[in-house]
């Protein structure tokens, strides 16, 4: 059953600094793997923010990228503030490496993403990247995908019907709302329905079902996309898988 925060998340909230330190350590290690001339995808979120900071330091030390594409206006503004020229995915043939955060990752490097609502662009950037590295603190690592609501981006024109369909399927849907209680609207003008079913019964089957549901634009199951995960742990160690 889904609860608002796992034990680890509650502990992490109580020691926010520690979690941020872990995020920064994973991010810095990822920044060290970026090579000169790389066409780089840069994701979204608080861990990626540390990655962009570290990338800025590498730029100041002489790193030159072939291209940079990003998945949110916030990351774009941060990159541009550091002097990077940011391209649109449509203007780049192929990316070499994308570095992004994740909301959950399992031992097969399958994951849940989209907590920040940028899942559609994140998945498009990821699948057009030769390599994908995720940077996470250890609270994101799970045995079975779950413990985090699965975001599904849906077209407004049939959002009500899709919501009802999810309810009938027992997927425990909820429309995402903003802090002021309005319906959350994505960069592309769509809604997000978060599925609170936990744990996810069969991620591949669920992904196939969502992929074939009319009205679904994209979903946050990222299966077989990530090839490297950098996990920063509370004990100060870093695992690369
Ligand atoms: C945004 C994402 C983020 O990568 C994910 O939510 C992780 O964020 P954070 O690094 O802030 O924990 O998928 O859509």
From TrEMBL:
Entry-linked Gene3D superfamilies: 3.30.70.260, 3.40.50.1360
Annotated SUPFAM superfamilies: D-ribose-5-phosphate isomerase (RpiA), lid domain, NagB/RpiA/CoA transferase-like
Keywords: Isomerase
The protein's annotated pathway: Carbohydrate degradation; pentose phosphate pathway; D-ribose 5-phosphate from D-ribulose 5-phosphate (non-oxidative stage): step 1/1
A Gene Ontology cellular-component term: cytosol
UniProt key word Ion transport: no
Keyword Ribosomal protein applies: no
Residues annotated as catalytic: 122 (proton acceptor)
GO biological process: D-ribose metabolic process; pentose-phosphate shunt, non-oxidative branch
Catalyzed reactions: aldehydo-D-ribose 5-phosphate = D-ribulose 5-phosphate
Gene Ontology MF terms in the entry: ribose-5-phosphate isomerase activity
Residue positions binding substrate: 44-47, 100-103, 113-116, 140
UniProt cross-references to InterPro entries, sorted A to Z: NagB/RpiA_transferase-like, Ribose5P_isomerase_typA_subgr, Ribose5P_isomerase_type_A
EC code: 5.3.1.6
Quaternary context: Homodimer.
Cross-referenced PANTHER family: RIBOSE-5-PHOSPHATE ISOMERASE (PTHR11934)
Known role: Catalyzes the reversible conversion of ribose-5-phosphate to ribulose 5-phosphate.
Similarity-based family: Belongs to the ribose 5-phosphate isomerase family.
Descriptive protein name: Ribose-5-phosphate isomerase A
Species classification: Bacteria, Bacillati, Bacillota, Bacilli, Lactobacillales
